[in-house]
Specification:
With 381 residues, the protein is an alpha+beta fold. The chain contains 8 helices and 19 strands.
């Protein structure tokens, strides 16, 4: 069988070789991607590729003891979004502090695009006292945007807004339920901001609550400044909740992927969150001692018995019924209740029949993703 004949001429070979050599030369001389500018926070200047903990003075105790807000800054070499992560805006909501710790340990942050600013403890006063509030009993998250010459809470809110919040392009605010109340993992975002809703979907918590922000909150101030922000609620005050922490770490990483701050190594199919536009607290109609029957994340239908309240001095007992169908996203953990006290927080969802499958699927995804995300980190028991 005759061998194939090469029909190209020597001149064509020479031209092709020259073209390849020229292309290779151009590629080798292509300038590297430009570094982004230094990032300034407080009195510190962070160069591209540098990590730093920045202490920003926020006031003093009446003993002249200074209290600072510490911010971890990871400034990537390449330009990108400036994502702010905040926790313990209420001083007793400590789940977010652990989420921040685990997030900052992730090796993949070494290849960050953009800038990550993590403030594990915003309300230093409350954190020291294990309290939701400031020393004057004011709620810091009802004091925004604050005033330079107002109350302690107002001054702190003003400084935080001016020195930190305004320097960021996106925000994730980490919260838990109040003392003796637990929240099922959920993300809250305003339906008017498409970027915030996209962040909420990317976070992939079990439930997304479309809710307007309250006056005086950091979320409301960020919305007013045009800064997309989502709020993650999970767990109980003064307690660590392993599931809530895992979903929080994974959710932040998901958002960073969606913003282009981290490179996605493997495309994974995610179960979409459930959406809710309406939620209500079910309150005690009588005072007494409560026996709770339903857990967080439980799907209930109208008429289901959620609890019984009874008197320790008589045979009196009354049932607490679900007034509508939905998912329990908040629950009182204290059996001693007063009339009018909030007991169960129920969110309405459109596809109740598929809700249980969705919640189970997201839980499984989180459990399977954690070892890869956290390496050899230890869980909190």
């Amino acid at each position: 069988m005759p061998e194939p004949i090469d029909l190209s001429t020597d001149a064509e070979h020479d031209g092709a070789t020259a073209a390849v050599d020229e292309t290779a030369a151009l590629a080798s001389t292509k300038p590297p991607a430009p570094l982004q500018a230094d990032f300034v926070l407080g009195n510190s200047q962070i160069a591209p590729g540098q990590r730093m903990v920045v202490d920003i003075p926020f006031g003093k105790l009446y003993t002249h003891t200074e209290l600072n807000i510490g911010a971890h800054v990871i400034h990537g070499k390449r330009p990108g979004p400036v994502l702010l992560i905040t926790a313990a805006l209420h001083g007793d909501e400590i789940n977010g502090v652990e989420i921040c710790r685990r997030l900052l340990r992730l090796p993949r942050l070494n290849n960050l695009k953009g800038t990550l600013v993590v403030v594990p403890i915003v309300n230093t006063y409350g954190f020291v006292q294990q309290s939701r509030y400031l020393p004057d009993r004011r709620d810091l998250n009802r004091s925004f945007p604050g005033s330079e010459k107002g109350s302690l809470g107002s001054r702190m809110a003003w400084q935080f807004t001016d020195r930190i919040l305004k320097k960021c392009t996106h925000v994730i605010d980490l919260h838990t339920g109040a003392i003796h109340r637990s929240n099922y993992p959920q993300v809250r975002a305003t339906s008017k901001d498409k970027v915030s809703l996209k962040m909420a979907e990317s976070f992939n918590a079990p439930i997304i609550i479309k809710a307007a922000s309250r006056d005086g909150t950091m979320r409301g101030t960020a919305n007013g400044l045009g800064i997309p922000i989502i709020l993650y609620e999970a767990g109980e005050a003064l307690r660590f909740d392993e599931q809530a922490i895992n979903i929080g770490v994974r959710g932040i990483v998901n958002v960073m992927h969606s913003l282009g701050m981290l490179r996605t190594l493997k495309r994974q199919q995610k179960t979409g969150s459930l959406f809710s536009k309406k939620s209500s607290w079910i309150r005690a109609e009588h005072d007494g001692i409560a026996r709770y029957y339903q857990r967080l994340g439980q799907i209930v239908t109208a008429g289901d018995v959620l609890a019984h309240i009874y008197s320790p001095y008589s045979d009196f007992e009354v049932a607490v019924l679900a007034p509508f169908s939905g998912i329990i996203i908040g629950r009182n953990n204290l059996p001693l209740v007063n009339e009018g006290e909030a007991l169960f927080h129920i969110a309405e969802v459109s596809e109740l029949a598929e809700a249980e499958k969705t919640l189970d699927a997201i839980s499984d995804e989180v459990d399977n993703a954690m070892p890869a995300a956290l390496g050899n980190d230890y869980s909190v028991v």
